[in-house]
Write a structure and sequence with these properties.
eight-stranded parallel β-barrel, two-stranded antiparallel ribbon, about 15% strand, binds flavin mononucleotide, TIM Barrel, single chain, Oye-like, about 375 residues, Alkene reductase, alpha/beta
Length: about 375
């Protein structure tokens, strides 16, 4: 493609997402950075980080706990206390002042927690008492062995749905432009979806329809708070992260997407297969198959470059493209992609936790030019 054709591509042009006008089709993927303050409250550095990345058409916040039970990592933000809502108000204000839009990603980690992070030192909860077979829990005392989680009682499930609804209400109060239900990457909702982690024999386990029940109930609950065109959902059909597996992911996710069609959501966000998934024996679900099943806006994420993003939009595989690691290192990513400019390299050592180094000190093109 010529430089002019890239520069003028619809990827870099405004896009109408339901009733929201985005300045381009490039999305900041949700990225946990473990830099919230005590009480899991967003702080001034978090405001700067998101403000810097308001170059995206849409920002999706880092995963944010809906409840104390939903916590799975140190220093990750929540949306279940007044202090957290106040912290998020600062982030939203900063993004809006830069002309950006921001959705909050709603998170419950399920079994990917540790009793040291749970209220009263309780065991983490999950659909079933199945311990993740790989990885370790990240705690305030360092990495620890995962524990076998406690299977949620049937009578506790309405309480989980209510926690999502309450978090959605608080997100509205904080001024967000929308919310994304995190049903990807091996956390609670994904644990219910897949038969590798869901061994229940009640209405929430077994048949695909049953395993999709909790996700659909959560969506129903948040849709009583938010209009559908301001609600997205994230799924990772091919993902193996956090010990995920399923006997027939294509059937599972096709079923779910067909159900989602009727909701007319803002978008469905698909985390595409990556090398680690394939190494772990993950069964690849082609995004083309998902595209056929889903009739609304599709957002894709995973190893995208400018070239692949342009291809995805041109081929109508997706309406929106999210960038994760490249956006960590390049706050002005859309401009750099549009100009074909060189990209800063993300420093993996500062991804999770630490100071402002590797967080809010990546330079923009103009800052780099000024320092020469
Ligand atoms: C540091 C880091 C933190 C992440 N945190 C989240 C998160 O909070 N929620 C989520 O859904 N995905 C999370 N992901 C996955 C990313 O959103 C994205 O799917 C992944 O990085 C692949 O996109 P990329 O190749 O453009 O980086 C995280 C990834 C990284 C590298």
């Amino acid at each position: 493609m010529t430089t002019t054709a890239v520069k003028d591509h619809p990827l870099f042009k405004p896009f109408k997402l339901g009733s929201i006008e985005l300045k381009n089709r490039i999305v900041l993927a949700p990225l946990t950075r473990n830099r919230a303050s005590a009480g899991n409250v967003p702080n001034a550095s978090n405001v700067t980080y998101y403000r810097q990345r308001s170059t995206a058409g849409l920002i999706i916040s880092e995963a944010t706990q809906i409840s104390p039970q939903g916590v799975g990592y140190p220093n990750t933000p929540g949306i279940h206390t007044d202090e957290q809502v106040a912290g998020w108000k600062g982030v939203v204000k900063g993004v809006h002042e830069e002309g950006g839009k921001i959705f909050l990603q709603l998170w419950h980690v399920g079994r990917i927690s540790h009793s040291s992070l749970q209220p009263d030192g309780a065991l983490p909860v999950a659909p079933s008492a199945v311990k993740p077979h790989e990885g370790m829990a990240m705690t305030y005392e360092g990495m620890k062995e995962f524990e076998t989680p406690r299977a949620l009682e049937l009578s506790e499930i309405p309480g989980i749905v209510a926690d999502y609804r309450r978090a959605a209400e608080r997100a509205l109060e904080a001024g967000f432009d929308g919310i994304e239900v995190h049903a990807a990457n091996g956390y609670l909702l994904d644990q219910f979806l897949r038969d590798g982690s869901n061994k229940r024999t009640d209405a929430y386990g077994g048949a695909i329809e049953n395993r999709c029940r909790l996700v659909l109930e959560v969506l129903q609950a948040v849709l009583e708070v938010w209009p559908a065109d301001k609600v997205g959902i994230r799924i990772s059909p091919s993902g193996t992260f956090n010990s995920m597996s399923d006997s027939n992911p294509e059937a599972l996710f096709t079923f779910l997407l067909e159900k989602l069609n009727s909701h007319k959501l803002a978008y469905v966000h698909v985390v595409e297969v990556n090398e680690a998934d394939l190494r772990h024996g993950g069964r690849k679900v082609d995004t083309e198959v998902l595209r056929k099943a889903y009739h609304g806006n599709l957002m894709v994420c995973g190893d995208y470059t400018a070239e692949r993003a342009i291809q995805a939009v041109d081929s109508k595989l997706a309406e929106l493209v999210a960038f994760g690691r490249l956006y960590i290192a390049n706050p002005d990513l859309p401009q750099r992609l549009q100009l074909g400019a060189e990209l800063n390299t993300p420093d993996v050592n500062t991804f999770y936790g630490g100071t402002d180094k590797g967080y809010i000190d990546y330079p923009t093109l103009s800052e780099q030019a000024a320092s020469v």
